[in-house]
Amino acid sequence: MTQLGLQRTPARRIQVPRPTRPRGDGRVALFFIAPVLLGFAIFYLYPTIRGFWWSFTDYSLLADPEFVGIDNYVAVLGDSEFWNSMWVTLCYVVLNVGSQTLIALLLAALMHRLTRSVVLRTTLLLPWLVPNVTVGLVWLWLLDTNLGFVNRTLDTMGLDKIGFFTNPMLAIPTISFINTWAFVGYTALLFYAGMLQIPQDTYEAAAIDGAGELRTFFRITLPLLKPILALVLVVSLIGSFQIFDTVAVTTKGGPVNASRVIYYYIYQQAFTYFHMGYAATMAILLVLILGVLTFIQLRLLRASESQLA
Amino acid sequence: MRRNTALRIAGIATAGIVLAATAGCSTQGGDGGAVTLDYWLWDDAQLPAYQQCADDFTKANPDITIKISQYGWGEYWTNLATQIAAGSAPDVWVDQPSYYPQFVADKQIEDLQPYIDEDPSAVDFDAYVPGIADVYKIDDARYGLPKDWDTIGLVINKQDAADAGIDDATLQDLTWNPDDGGTFEQVIAKLTVDKSGKHGDEAGFDKNDVAVYGFLPEWADGSQGQNLWGNLAYSNGFTYSDVNPFGTSFHYDSPKLAETIDWIASLADKGYAPSFDTQSTLSRLEVLQSGTGAMTSMGSFNQLMFKDTASDYVFAPLPTGPEGRKSAINGLSDAMYAGGKHKDHAWEWIKYLASSDCQSVVGATGVIFPANADASQASVDARAKLGLDASVFLSYAQEPDGTFLIPITYHGAEMSQIVQDAIQSVALGTSDSQSALSDANAKVNALFE
């Protein structure tokens, strides 16, 4: 009993100064956070709450919103265009995130194991520095069927022209490829930074044990990179779901509805058809879907556990 | 204490910068006696002409300044809707027949009839091209004063026509029907040339290896087909709806339309036009100017694009169909924002824009055909000086029922997507025209239930 009591006292003593310190820090911290918090409240929280309210209304943007209960939700779930655009978006995400992650991993591993040239790293980042709309326009012109460089080259080689943006089967793969091209350097750099964190001695040990490059990659690099991999996957998945600009610049959702991704459909409903309430409903559903996906992904990858610890 | 003060100063300074930026980025109109009116338009080619009108107007009315903003067609309507939602819409904007009914339904544009009643001499309706003022009339209300009008014609590469041995008289009097395409299809076939130099009507023509397409169709043409299919279908006896404006029962399932769409799609099958999935993403006029197309249809508002290459192109009227020669006619207007703060001043400006004074200034540039008939003639003359023959666009008006009004409806934007998707699916070959258009028609009619 006394022993226990004695043990407790020092513990208490350590805790004594705490109440004063954190309080002071908290106030200062709040002060520093305030501008961001204010921005968050005005530009994120308030619009989200408003959007949530609009999802229960019939709102044309021009006249006042009118409460309609869950009518919008019922209509969205029965809207074949909504499900089509979810499917199109999913195809895009799988193609884009898949190719981007694989190529970026390969590039990062090459940079890590072969060369550490700064020039090379900077060059890889270049497409990422170009604004998305410019990227879209450049590829639109390069891939144009009549006047584009790529099709002209195919034509002079005696091959058939390819309607990259105008063939419904190719529109989404083309857009995925464009964005992979634009973002792969950035993703590779994130992976590369993650690889630099892996202690060099693990590689030395592997080399002494006679492991080849492939084995080292799968047994050491990949497992130790898992937290970064998980983070990058979650961020690119969410980013990829938000594909809008490239579609808006190149195909505008066409041909017919082959590349009408969910963000473009939401935009059309809100600003072309003036169905703000309906658009808000789809946005809320998208938030729910993305939340669930992120949760599952983090769970599957157990992202918080690093094998380095 | 000291640190807190420093922090506070830093905080205040940050807030100050943010506020200054906010104030600097927003625009403020003048107050007091002088009024600044915001005026929006989308065509950058027309901006200088209307700036001239604004300057002349301010000279006559020194207390009213006009601030013109120009946004591209792509952003124009979205920007306008968001500005209206934010309560800061322009006082006057250029309006278009497919968009204005939505603004009327949401009570965002002012009925101008009361202003006209109070000021009967303000507008001379007899001076306008007939029918063009009524586009913006709903019952006794008037939601805009006429600004300009346009029709559709054909533009043909002169050298290609000469190489194919087609004379000008043939081009100026083409015929068309949905069965064999008439002389229109014959000319298109002759204008098409494959890589080995064989024309589309010659034996041994390779439709899979075409160098110059005879015709460039427009497949992204909404629910109106203003640029081609609407005109051909109309000349084939098709009508869009029970009544126009403001029809509520539509006829997109008509076989007259289906056979028209089938004919246009057949051009690609024969190699006379690029197939839908290999067409350029650039505009048809750009493809035409690049030399890979020999002929296309175009609106009168685009003719000035050819001012530097006028001698290389021929302009011709649309072909005569089974029911005659028909062109869609469209007209823009100036609308007044119902929530504006200076409506009386805005009325003065709209009145001036609709007057022959302003319209002749615009007409003299040749950029568009003003609603005022005399100013229209001035525009035709201005184009003639540049070597551009604009008479084809006026030719329809000389025939009885030579023009038809493009459909003016509620739900215009949704209809546009539904019908365009159906027509594109025919062009892609993923569905047959009759069933695709019948489905689309059911969806369109459901919007009005």
TrEMBL record, chain A:
* InterPro entries, alphabetized: ABC_transporter_permease, MetI-like, MetI-like_sf
Q: Domain ABC transmembrane type-1 spans what residues? A: 86-297
**What PROSITE patterns has UniProt attached to this entry?**
ABC_TM1
Under Gene3D superfamilies, the record lists: MetI-like (1.10.3720.10)
Q: Which Pfam families match?
A: BPD_transp_1
Sequence similarity: Belongs to the binding-protein-dependent transport system permease family.
Name of the protein in its database record: Sugar ABC transporter permease
Q: What is the lineage of its organism?
A: Bacteria, Bacillati, Actinomycetota, Actinomycetes, Micrococcales
UniProtKB/TrEMBL annotation, chain B:
What is the protein's given name?
Sugar ABC transporter substrate-binding protein
Task: Kindly list the organism's lineage.
Answer: Bacteria, Bacillati, Actinomycetota, Actinomycetes, Micrococcales
Q: Where in the cell is it found?
A: Cell envelope
The secretion signal range is 1-20
Q: Which organism is it from?
A: Protaetiibacter mangrovi
InterPro entries reported in the protein's UniProt record: Bact_solute-bd_prot1 (IPR050490), SBP (IPR006059)
CDD domains the record matches: PBP2_TMBP_like
Name the keywords, alphabetized: Signal, Transport
Family recorded in the similarity comment: Belongs to the bacterial solute-binding protein 1 family.
